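I had to read the description of the data format several times before I understood it. In essence, backbone conformation is discretised, so a fold becomes a row of integers matching the chain in length. I therefore recommend that a typical entry be quoted early in the introduction. For illustration, here is how one protein appears when written out as sequence plus structure tokens.

***
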Amino acid sequence: MMLYYVQLSLARFKQRVGTHLAIALMLGAGVGITTVMLSIVLQASSDPAPGRSSALFRPYLDARPDALRSGSPDPGQSLTWPDAKVLLNQGRTWKQAAMAGGAVTLSRPGEPSARLRARFATSEVFSVLGIAVVQGRAWTAEEGHAASRIVVLSRVLAERECAQGCVGHQLDLGRRTYTVVGVAEDWHPVPMFQGDLTRRPFVEPDEIYLPLETAIADKLTVVDGTAIWGGDQDTDPAGANVSWLQLWAWLPTADDVAAYRANLNAYAQEKGLRIEPGTQQVALWPLMDWLDRLGLVPEQARMQLRLSLILLGVCIVNAAALLSFSLGRRRPELAIRRALGARRRDVFIQLMWESIAAGVASGALAVVTYTLGSRVVAAGDVLPSAITAMHAGAMLMAAGLGVVTTLLCSLVPSFEICRVSSLSSAFAKGAA
């Protein structure tokens, strides 16, 4: 019986191919465009560390003078190096890492120099963020304190620079020689929560990791936001009047969170900061709360999603009207089937199978529209490439929405048709 319905629906599709293609074009275009923008918004607001985000926390202390603090909130909410060191030393019970985004210049004999995206961090950065070291090792805390010139490369950079084995390889970075001690798995969270999200939330992944103390000693370039107060703007980054570091703590249990918060508040009170809720001078943000607070979805994406949803609504209304008109012309035909003994259920199933045939065409066109739309958006350089990449999941979503919206459009007309109770009423409605 099912095969009969399928064959019948395909035959009806061929008989009314123009109507069904018009419906497929309307819904396919609307669904495809909506999927493009919905995919961008979902990527921008997604969990960047699945399985770890619930245990990642970002402590914050507003170390600025009262005059600056009362005037405006700290936009980047970064830490100074002295404050970060105290928190790292106080919290030895927990895994913590202070870090900042940077850039280094790689010089190669006989080749143009290359600018690399760097992450300056303390020794536990890999265990805190969950980055696997696949060759060699990470640097130790002692090597970090000694400002050792050692680095860990990302897998992509390692394959490009020393495919035969990088551990022990030497790199010329900014006219200084650094030794490679390890290679880390490529790691690209979206957004790049470990950096300064107020400036660069959607950027390409880090290519090289260096000890934070080495970056300070060698005066390497920091690209994250830096706030300086109380004197010369060219202040030493290790000073107490320069905030530029992000600190992340791994706190897997509620007891860990409570104990860490108590340590943070105790240190804040020593500095004369107010720890009452609402003062925004001291905070311990869970990762997802921190991202929600920043509101990282670009306004262009939000606006375009709203417009695409309006377009999809118009397409659904027009498609439903066209389906209703098309089915209305078939009332006499379907009434004859009822008169010959077909149940209402049989007629409804037949109409649904015909809608599925149109829905498959709509889904296919939605996938094509999504693919073309994603490429157009990515080529426009309006939105970051990290959130405009095509995904197989979004393609499946576009195809599924194409089928589902077609079925939804046909539900009301099909129910109305199935209410036909006699040949006379069917022909009367058909003639009207």
Q: What stands out?
A: The CA atoms of residues 5 and 350 lie 6 Å apart. The longest helix spans residues 344-379. The first strand starts at residue 56 and ends at 61. Residues 2-45+297-431 form one domain.
